[in-house]
Specification:
By secondary structure, the chain is α+β, with helices and mostly antiparallel strands. Among the domains are: 152 residues, 2-Layer Sandwich (Beta-Lactamase), CATH 3.30.450; 147 residues, 2-Layer Sandwich (Heat Shock Protein 90). It is built from 9 helices and 12 strands. The strands form 3 sheets. It has a 5-stranded antiparallel beta sheet, sandwiched between helices. Strand 11 and strand 12 form a beta hairpin. It is rod-shaped, with a radius of gyration of 49 Å.
Length: 434
């Protein structure tokens, strides 16, 4: 069975560019290496040919002009050396190893090194390689043999490849520059094609996600609306059954609670979908924040008394442009959490303050607080902290999500400050009425 794997476009692009890079720069490397070897070979051949020809001119000119007119001899030597840029110095040695002339000193010099003495006496031209680079000739010892066979002198040539090295370096730079430009010329179109394909795939995925999102919204709307009818029927029959004296209320209450939860869930899903799609009609009016908070407190008062929670409410009068019903729901959701996750006989402080051109409504409780790692998820749908379950919370994690959607729809902001085991403080920031 074969192993199937799939690379993303970024991986494909990296692989293609890597292959192109290796191909171009490896080719450039071997081309430059071959050029260097060929250059050294050509220059070595030139040096050998030069040494062979120039030896036949240098020694006779030395014998003819040096003692009687060294200037004439030096002029001829400079002309000979000028025709070759690799040889920058030479010496003339007799068979005893005495240097009778050095082109740098223009006078008699020291004896030839003992290692060269045997080579000076050789009738064959000797080529000594550079210790650091075997492709370079560092020294040539060329014997001068007169027509009748006499061998009285040898010429020792010292070479320098600095000029050639510069030429090779310049050539290599040009080669690698061409390789780089060729790499760019190939990589850009290929990269463009791969990125274009990536963009096309992302676009298709986005269209698919948008289509799935539309289908999800349609399902939520259809399911929520279709639930309204059976819920209404159940509520109607429960009202009739409650009037029958023979049926105990203990049986009816759990059913009514379940129906009520189902009804709230259905309405919440419809509201969420409307807020997300900006389809919810927001009827903004000039209203008092205190009046909305008092309405929420009144609705939740039975739960406050049941847990023995002490609630303190500021009486500052602040006016905002808001939809009374929606803002009340947001405040009720936050206050409901402050009650449910509070400690028995705990406290809740509701503050109303003004800061610049904004009203700040704060709800601070003495409850269980929220774990630090859960704070970034607190306003996400269906996310609930583990401790919520321990508090037998019946919700599914939509209250704070809906509250944030409502506050966002009012161009406001909701913030959270919490300490685990100490409590939480939610702040709703809304623009004041001008």
């Amino acid at each position: 069975m074969g192993i199937k794997f799939q690379l993303n476009s970024k991986s494909n692009l990296a692989i293609v560019l890597s292959i192109l890079f290796i191909v171009y720069f490896t080719s450039a490397y071997f081309f430059s290496l071959n050029n260097a070897q060929k250059s050294f070979s050509d220059y070595n051949n030139q040096v050998k040919a030069f040494a062979k020809v120039s030896t036949k001119q240098i020694v006779p000119n030395f014998e003819l002009y040096f003692n009687s007119g060294s200037y004439k001899f030096k002029e001829g030597i400079d002309e000979i050396l000028g025709s070759n840029k690799t040889i920058n110095e030479f010496s003339i040695s007799d068979m005893e190893g005495n240097v009778v002339y050095n082109s740098k000193q223009s006078k008699k010099a020291e004896r030839v090194e003992s290692v060269d003495l045997k080579l000076v006496n050789s009738l064959e031209t000797t080529y000594l390689q550079n210790n650091n680079n075997q492709n370079k000739i560092s020294k040539i010892i060329s014997p001068f043999i007169e027509d009748w066979g006499a061998h009285r002198y040898s010429v020792i040539y010292l070479t320098s490849y600095s000029v050639i090295d510069k030429e090779i370096s310049s050539f290599n730079f040009q080669i690698f520059l061409v390789a780089f430009l060729a790499f760019l010329a190939s990589a850009l179109p290929i990269g463009g094609l791969i990125l274009k394909r990536e963009y096309s795939l992302v676009k298709k995925k986005k269209e698919l996600l948008e289509d799935l999102n539309i289908q999800k919204d349609n399902f939520i709307i259809a399911a929520s609306h279709n639930l309204r009818t059976p819920i209404a029927v159940l509520e109607g029959y429960l009202t009739i059954i409650q009037k029958v004296e023979t049926i105990e209320n203990n049986y009816i209450k759990p059913i009514r609670d379940a129906v009520e939860q189902l009804s709230v869930l259905s309405e919440n899903m419809i509201l969420i979908n409307s807020l997300l799609n900006h389809e919810e009609h927001i009827e903004k009016k000039n209203i008092s924040l205190v009046s909305i908070v008092k309405k929420s407190v009144k609705d939740l008062n039975p739960f406050l008394r049941r847990k023995g929670i002490n609630l303190k409410l500021a009486s500052n009068e602040l006016k905002v442009e808001a939809d009374f019903k929606l803002l009340e729901k947001a405040i009720t959701n936050i206050l409901d959490n402050a009650i449910k996750f509070n400690k028995p006989r705990g406290s809740i402080k509701i503050g109303l303050n003004k800061e610049n051109d904004h009203a700040i409504l704060s709800i601070e409780d003495s409850g269980i607080g929220i774990k630090k790692n859960f704070v970034p998820h607190i306003f996400k749908p269906f996310d609930r902290q583990a401790d919520f379950i321990n508090y037998e919370y019946q919700g599914i994690g939509l209250g704070l999500y809906i509250a944030k959607l409502i506050i966002d729809a009012h161009q406001g902001e909701i913030t959270l400050f919490t300490r685990e085991g100490v409590g939480s403080k939610f702040s709703i920031i809304l623009p004041l009425k001008p």
